[in-house]
């Protein structure tokens, strides 16, 4: 399971993301995956998260709601 899937299943916390990224960079996990794939993010989600880590809760909320990140962010601004 990806980091995002583990978060949605309640088996990981959003605050654990740095540990998952470190495991990927150390070659301990996700050997045949890009970092976004290993984390379970789309490229658009990854781009947003990489430049603005505080968006992670919105990524998770969008997934829970079956929405895109763009839709979730637009809704949260209303």
Helix content: 55-70%
Beta percentage is: under 5%
The run of helices and strands is HHHHHH
**What are the low-pLDDT stretches, counting only 5+ consecutive residues below 50?**
none
**Helix count?**
6
Decide which structural class fits the backbone: mainly alpha
| Cα gyration radius (Å) | 12 Å
Number of domains: 1
Profile the largest sheet.
none
Mean pLDDT: 95
Please give the alpha-carbon distance between the first and last residues. 33 Å
Count the E strands.
0
Global geometry: globular
Please characterize this protein's 3D structure.
The protein is mainly alpha-helical. The protein has one domain (3-77). The protein has 6 helices and no strands. The protein has helices at 3-8, 17-25, 35-39, 43-51, 56-65, 69-77. Helix 5 (56-65) crosses helix 6 (69-77). The mean pLDDT is 95.
Give me a quick take on this structure.
With 78 residues, the chain is mainly α.
Helices and strands, with pairings:
Blueprint: H1 3-8, H2 17-25, H3 35-39, H4 43-51, H5 56-65, H6 69-77
Helix pairs in contact: 5-6
Features:
mainly alpha, 6 helices, 62% helix, 78 residues
